[in-house]
Amino acid sequence: MAAIWETSVVSILALLAASFVRGPLTIHMATVDITPPERLPLGGYTERLGKLMQPGGDPLFARSLILERGPLKIAIVSAEMLTIPESLCREVRKRIPSDVVLFLAAVHTHCAPDSQMLNDRMKFAIPGIAAYAPLWLGWYAERIAESVNGALATPGFEVGKLSLKIGHIRLNRARRRGGRPDPASRELDAGRRVLFTEYAAHATIYGPEELHTRGDWPGAVATKTDAPVLVGAIGDVSPALDGPDPATRVQQFRDRLESSFRVAPRTVWKARDPISVTDQPILLEAPRPHPSFAKAYHAPLSLAKALVTQFAPSTASITAIRLGSLAIVGVPGEPTSALGSRISQAGRQLEFDNVIVCSHVNGWIGYILAPRDYDRGGYEATLSFNGRNESERVVQAATEAMRKLRN
Known about the structure:
Blueprint: H1 2-18, E1 25-33, E2 61-69, E3 72-79, H2 86-94, E4 100-106, H3 134-153, E5 157-159, E6 161-168, E7 172-174, E8 184-190, E9 193-199, H4 216-225, E10 229-231, E11 237-239, H5 246-259, E12 266-270, E13 275-281, H6 293-296, H7 301-311, E14 317-323, E15 326-330, E16 334-335, H8 337-349, E17 354-358, E18 367-368, H9 371-376, H10 379-382, H11 390-406
Parallel strand pairs: 3-4, 9-10, 15-17, 16-18
Antiparallel strand pairs: 1-2, 1-5, 2-3, 6-8, 6-12, 7-11, 8-9, 13-14, 14-15
Helix pairs in contact: 2-3, 4-5, 8-11
């Protein structure tokens, strides 16, 4: 609770400060290589059974975008990792200035070292999932903080307007019954400079047979734009495109996504418009295993309860940013497409013209499913840890966060 309180205090102060500031916005950006110097177990596909990454893969990066206006500093960081454990957020915050609000997002590539090594609650062995390694938690925190601090140290450039390009392209498909992936692709620009790209699709073009590090489609897009990539509501959304091999499909994905931005931009923020940020705690129920968890992971029910109670977080929060008429809502897990749509609709009812819902921000509480979807079970349900009403609590927190920004 202390970490959430500290973060909330910083965010509230930043929100109050922002309400008194008008004028240009200064943009700072930096990129840092986060490819580990040793071979580590890859995460994302448990069927790999902890196999180590092989040499010769793609470099992995953390890309930081700093929005600075008066005393307000917001760091939007995109890390080419599987997830963002809460312990990683805590350690990064220790290494950056206390007045910087952190919005740390994973692109969810399944070809990066297993981020459970950075989860200080993961102190037991599960086949195919790495255990906590304090050395690597410190190493990753240093590299990500280096990205933030490096961006802050750059002179930056001032902008008086931010524009959003919204394309529509079917590069995603539902992987659970009733899923309706968001086809919108989004790119936030400052003049001719891309600030970030957002799209909803799992970074799983490379499959479990791939043992090299890969940024997958987000890495390919970020390499082209030299800007962060955020993933949307991906809890039931996979990439959808044809091609002879994964490398070709990744390039096709990048090229088609880029072509979707040949649309007229819409202005979302001007120099007299507000910029603010806030955190809203999610009122989670106590962690407990889904009824099918024990069977899926071949564990007795008593052991399943003990594992989930120790492994799953009991606290989490929504981090939300306002840029004029745009709301960016960071969810600490993987909401389904339906939940992303509900959060977007709630934002529009609060008179935000545009709402971007991002997965894997400042924590990971697993898959976030609607009650009926939770009851159906399946792989995603086994990794949903806070009961069948978890999604309702996430939507409530996201709505309250946007209400704070609006007011």
